[in-house]
Amino acid sequence: MYIASDRVLWVTEPYAPDWVSLIGGFIMQTDTISVVEPVEDGLWVVSDQTYFFKGDGPENFDVRPKLAYGAVYGTSSKIPYTNDVVWYSN
After folding, report:
1. ∠48-41-54 over CA atoms, to 5°?
2. Sign of torsion, CA 41 75 67 30?
3. How many CB atoms sit inside 10 A of residue 12's CB?
4. What's the pTM?
C-alpha cells in the first residue's frame, strides 16, 4: 500500500498495511504530493511535476518524469469501465 504524506510516499510492508520501514519504506519527492494513482503498469505520482513509477514495487520502479507540471490536490479519479486515471492540472 502507498500512503502520501506531504513530500513522502510511504510504502507499507507486504500484507501488513500498518507496518512501514523507517529506513527504506519511503520515496521522497521534491514538493508536496498532490496525486497518487495506481494503474496496471505502475504508479502515477504528481508533486512538482508528473512522474510515472513503472514497475510492480519500490524495488523495481523505473521512475521517469512524464509532464513538466503538477496537479490540483485531491482531484484524481478513475474513469469508469477503463484502466485510465485523470486529474486536474494547474
Report:
1. 45
2. negative
3. 15
4. 0.87
